[in-house]
Specification:
binds glycyl-adenosine-5'-phosphate; 446 residues
Length: 446
Amino acid sequence: MAKRTLTGTTLETLVSLSKRRGFVFQSSEIYGGLSSVWDYGPVGVELKRNVKDSWWKSMVRERDDVVGMDASILMHPDIWVASGHVDSFTDPLVECQDCHRRFREDKLEGGTCPNCGGVFGKPRQFNLMFKTFLGPVEDSAAVVYLRPETAQAIFVNFENVQTTSRKKIPFGIAQIGKSFRNEITPGNFTFRTREFEQMEMEFFCEPGTDDEWYDYWMNWSMDFYSSHGIRREKLRLRKHEPDELPHYSKASSDVEYVFPWGWDELETISNRTDFDLKAHAEKSGKDLSYFDDQQKKRYVPFVVEPAMGADRAALAFLADAYDEEGEGKDLRVVLRFHPDIAPYQVAVLPLSRNDRLVPTARRVYDVLRSHFNTQYDDSQSIGRRYRRQDEIGTPLCVTVDFQTVEEDDAVTIRNRDTMEQVREPIENLETAIRDQLDLMRKDSQG
Ligand code: GAP
């Protein structure tokens, strides 16, 4: 049975592990860094890709009622007028009159500046959308926005997607892509940044069925995280109070996770009603209603939206996987990722760089890499290489030694969680790895 103690840790430890092992680096580091902007390294990019691929597989490929799309980041500026973002996508900003630091007023505790104790000036509404110019002339007619959510591209393509996919309501459109918000107070590592990736799905349904779908998608999201390894007891749903609801929403709930600093938002599920389709129909002059040919009636669909952040989800998977065993020089740091989330599923480790081992080790690597995301590592001692693989959460290590080449054409498979080692003939290796990964998948359900 696999061990799953999962001690949890501080944000500082995760930031330092991320840098040391190539998950996440400070952006523009050699120039002194750019505040609250992060780059994913070779290991982190695999982690985030696995988070996105797992979501896409569960949300789109394994369902008949959701299709995907991938829209441009730049869109017609009227979209953001119709959606309400130009008028309402604001946070209250206050500036300290002494040190001139700026803060989000609604996130402050106490009425004085947390930096110097100074007094604030009058709050003003600060729009979070980034502006840029389309083409060479920088005038107001050329202003476009970097999208602050992926959702609007789905609403304005509703008719294109519905008619070409021939989907009938209820059905959804999913998208993964970058969004940008000029947050007043970004922070907590990759949790709140100004450039981030979202995984959003807009589910179009008949008015009157929206409450049921809202419940359905809340449960779906909770299941998504826990079936990919996040512990249930670290997740909860929190209903928004009426004064927190976004301008488009009839009801919203956050999936929250206990991050190292406490419970915080991982995802929001909202019942957006027919707000967006009606707003775009009115502004564009294009009818966005739907004709239900079974019921012979026409209506504007309601929309239920699970909106998840890929970076936030990756951070939650990282935080939840972190574990420590032993202490002092025997301390073993291990990331107990679910095998579908782990950056690499297998590492091939020749006992040394000895010429007699390398051809077999490369042969094993070539066999495995076509089935699993596999890393080849032949630097430093085998003990240090096991530690390194534990620290990036690789579920299985395959070791090629002299017995392999001299006696049995078999290798050792070491399990990250139990540290048990079994010997398997190379000809059975793919199946043996698949079986062990399946067991680890079952074992890491949250
Ligand atoms: N379309 C609805 C929408 O965008 P949201 O609650 O503003 O809703 C959805 O954002 C999710 O996107 C959040 O729950 C979070 O995971 C992610 N997200 C939002 N702002 C973010 C930021 N500044 N940095 C990182 N992720 C962010």
